[in-house]
Amino acid sequence: MVERALRTRALVLENRRLKAELETGDAAARMLFGISRKADGLRARCRVAARAGTDVLITGAPGSGLSKVAEVVHLCSNRSKGPFEKRSAAGLDRVALGEFWRGCAAGTVFLDEICQLPKDSQLALVDLLEEGGSRLIAGTVRDLAREVESGAFSAELFYRLEVMQIHIPALGERPEDIPVLFRHYVAQAAEQAGLEPPEITEEVISGLIARDWPGNTRSLMSAAMRFALGLGESEDMGEGLGLTERLAQVERSLLVEALKRTGGQASAAAQALKLPRKTFYDKLAKYGIRAEDYR
Asked: Under the phi-then-psi rule, with left for phi > 0, alpha for psi from -120 to 50, and beta for the rest, what region is 242?
């Protein structure tokens, strides 16, 4: 009972810390969560793109958060005081595009799924880029180079966009970020619903890390919302897992248990598991485990 209360309290404090960060520092640190090297690289790339001032192409798998990254680039740029407007490129005709562009002067325009912009509008967009006024950030889950090869996308527009590209790594490429993101989403959902954040056990975290997450952060957020609302997500975390995934769950549990027994002393835990220190730390990073959480 005491341990659960402490965990709940820690989750509340963590959420308050994250909220405080939303009001200070740069937008990349405030809005893009993660402890992995890939998350660090994504934040760094956003800052570089913001400073460059060029048009930007953001790519990533479905559900990876293209529009959020676009907003981060805008907020990190010298246009941050200007408007940030986003539209789906699908079906956006020449006239509507022109009105949208000019209505966002001194700000940033984000066109989602740029590859679906009608051919006539693609030509119009090239002219608007020459005209200036707004900054373009385009997003897509497709391979634009292939779209150009097939004739479906303007080569001239592509060459302007490819100068500055940002790729969002899939959640499966950075499993150590899953616990951080899940805890943040759960705390956020619980606060919005006026509920006490539920306990997030090591078994829940192990189940999350073992999943593929083809829907990336969007599906992780949905899972966190269901979990926060008590809709039984935790019961399904380990269902349907193969041998590799179940072994990963066991390995993570052994790491956590070793840290618990040694009071969070990583060196002692590594010795108890008969692992070299570097291997032990690599495994902690892989599963998003922090030794200090068990001290």
From this structure: beta
